[in-house]
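request received
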Amino acid sequence: MRPLILGRIHVCDREGKEKGSPHELHKFTVTNQALIEVKDLKTHFNIEGTWARAVDGVSFSVHAGEVLGIVGESGSGKSVTALSLMRLIPDPPGRIVGGSVMYKGRDLTKLSYEEMYDIRGKEIAMIFQEPMTSLNPVLRIGNQIAEVIMAHEGLDEKSAMKRSVEMLSLVGIPDPEKRVRDYPHQFSGGMRQRVMIAIALACNPSILIADEPTTALDVTIQAQILELMLELQRKRKDAAILLITHDLAVVAEMCHRVIVMYGGKIQETADVRTLFANPAHPYTRGLLNSIPRPSKERKGRERLQAIPGNVPSIMNLPTGCKFCTRCEVKLEKCDTVEPDLVEIAPGHSVRCHLVSEAQQ
Amino acid sequence: MSAPLLEIKNLKVHFPVYGGVFQRKVAEVKAVDGVSLTIHRGETVGLVGESGCGKTTVGRALVNVLKHVNSDVYVDGEVIYHATDGTTTDLLALKNRDLQAFRRKIQMIFQDPYSSLNSRLSVKQIIAEPLEIHRPDLSKSEVDDRVRWLLEKVGLQPEYALRFPHEFSGGQRQRIGIARALATNPELIVCDEPVSALDVSVQAQVINLMEDLQKEFGLSYLFIAHDLSVVYHISQRIAVMYLGNIVEMGSADSVYFAPTHPYSKALLSAVPEPDPLRTDKQRIILEGDIPTPLNKPSGCGFRTRCPIAQDACAKDVPVLQHKANGSAVACPFVT
Amino acid sequence: MLQYFVRRLLLAIPTFFVCTVIVFFIVQLAPGGPLEQQVQALKAAAANERGGGGGTGMGDQAIPPTALAELERYYGFDKPIWKQYLMWLGVSPRPMESADLPVELNKPRQAGNGLTVVVTERNGTYTVSDATSPGVPLEGWQAEYQRLSAGTYQLRAFKTEYAGILTGFFGKSHRYQEPVWDLMISRMPISLQFGLIGIVLGYAVSIFLGVTKGLNHGSRFDVISSGVVFIMYSIPGWALGSVLLVIFSTDAGLNILPLRGFESTDYQDLELGSKIADRLIHFVLPTIAYTIGSFATLTMLMKNSLLDNLGQDYIRTAFAKGIRESRVIWLHAMRNSIIPIASRLGSLISIFLASSYLVEFVFGIEGMGRLSFMAVLTRDYPIVFAFTVFNVVFVLVGAMISDFILAMVDPRIKFK
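response:
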């Protein structure tokens, strides 16, 4: 089937024939060298005297050239994981209490505050959910981009501003020479997220962490931003994107590998095809069943299979499996014994007693 | 199709913009600019569109709150209520006082379950409030019974009646909001993004609840949302809005799977799908942002981003043309 | 933007008139006006003359009605109050004090400056003419009957002038018998010094303290300094002043600072350097008393504003960019936190009236505070009204300056 070309619209099909999509990279193998390796990361928050385990023993690695997704709901610890990599956890009340984040032979959790300045924005960059509030309202767009270039590349203001204009045009903002002098409020939400991406990519980082980058945007604008991120990612095979989201559809479209988090722990991780085709964890299965999936084939609308109960607060997590309060297939020991993350197939790991018992 | 419940005819809602030395009205934001839509009894109509398209304003106009907020807001058209005995009433023409009897027939639930409930009132007070206004004949114990019954209906324990909103999670709060809307035995509930603030795993619960209640009470829903797959799931018919106008309308299947208007096509193609194996999907990526309704393009509002725009599009606002299969599209250049 | 300020200016006009009308009428309606006070003073004088043993029943006769009428005319109270207001504004003519004399019909009378006037009557209208050419109206002169008491009237000829605040004339103080403007100007340097030092000290200390507290929120320093600032806020300046005077300026205490006044009695004879030193020495204690309470609001505003901004998303963005903490705080956070502080700068204009009656009283300084306070007590209307006018104008202008500064420092703000 030929891709539909309509006037100024640009089209890419899922086979990647036109422009290439992430899925042509599905052959990607885990033997690739890890850019960043997270081991047993623990970030806890002191809330009124008790320590809430927002992230409790998370291990994963991000490989060059991949888009790794972390999915989870509120309180799953996905955003705290991302902020921990950047050492952006506000202390107090939060603290990285254990684990390591190895990047280029250095443990980021052990670096001094001074040393982290050279990592943030230069080696690892980050964009956030709220494009409306993530830019400083009283500084010009150009200065906000130039600032990061001046901080890391040692350029003078004039050449940094020149680079800012180039970055704006790279992320598809029309009339960049003029727009660098504008303030954030003069941009729409989608445009601000483009500016955020321009800032993040200004120093060619190895890893881009995108924390819910399109949640606040409209569907057509979301498509623009996701497309822009993929396009930029394709240009640099040695870089990677860590995409944090609650939206399984965005994960399906964007990522090569997926981590599913719940209650501060990784519950399941697999490559994107396996995860959607063969979800093993009851939570992953529940999530996939609970979202409406319009399909021409299935006539009539089936009732959604909702996960019962509510997302537990991180202040009040069960001692055993974090999902046991809502799990419909739980065993007796799930209440008290936390299952381990067990690899059930190459690259596919699950934290569930039921699955590990079936394996044995 | 069942009997009509509410017939919206050429609804216009224009907000004033003030300016100049004397703060006179200098312009209008045409938030809703000639919308016609019929909601039948027991039916769910989905209203989709991106921010600023006017979908929320349509819902608010139905509940008729706008007029009493600012008398300068221009509201025109007809909102005709069809009673079961066949009589019709134009709600927009009614005075505030006469409207009271109809207000209880149309209720609303809101997007943000955190701010749409008064945090100083107990759950019982929140749910009983509309009863006190619309059913002053009920005795105290009758109100108590009804509150308990409503809580059970929305899947909450009746014992929760004495608690306060902050003690509940987002999903539970949305259930309280639904119970409040149900209190007056409404016929139509306007749902403004009812699940978009909820966690993914909780959304399905609320959607299922809404479907169950619809079956039990024969409710009609006007379901306003930006999440197209949710709207498709719950709606029998879908209307797509862009810059204050409906550009396409039809059965959920025809709009979702065979959109014809260039905007609906782009909108639907932009919806990400939770299926990494689907490879037949083509994505149309629209350029640029939605123009503000303050500065609407002449003629067709979509022409500035439309891939098939022609010179003629700048002249007239295209009208919805009805097709044989019951759907309608506001573009003369598609079939 | 321009439109906005034009609109503000246009709105300021009715605001100004409404304020002055209200003050004018309310103040005049209150009993115990300057007339009554004069009467009381005259009675007291009369009583003293009689050796302090006069009968109270004689009091009323002590002041002849003609004298009372004379006083009324002197203060302008013989006119209806709306007319007084128009005269005060300067849009209605008022009798010139120097050329207002009682006359008899058709009898020439000396009016000063070699002028002799005569009043003639024809068909019920009175004409004031030069005695050399009776019947020819004299430019600017009028004649009218003044009611002295029941049944007695006095014909008066007088020259009129338009003199009111719109023509720049604030009237003459009843008490000091000097133009109000001169009285205020002579006290302005004191206010300016108080005001300027108060503002500079207030802003400098508050911003520095606020930022330090914001960055160390919840620390021991934060808690203690909050306590100190609020205790200072709760201490009345005059009370502190009295205590300071006892400690520093009396024989019981250290006696190293002057007890009273704004300058030494021999100030005029001093060298320039000594003059400055003299002023400074006189200024230490009043300034402390004056500024003691002014830190709390600004400090807390600064602290909360900074804390608020440090919690914003764009601060996290700046850190994520690898920007150094000092730059994040002093550029990103401060640039935003200073906005609510900067927008208060419009009120700076009121430093021309800066005063505190009690502090001035304690330190024996003749400043604006004493002037205005005594004016209210003695019903010195011209001064009271002049202060009203200045206050209204300063508030209106200050608000406009604030808006302007706000628009300057915050690009999001566009006044329409």
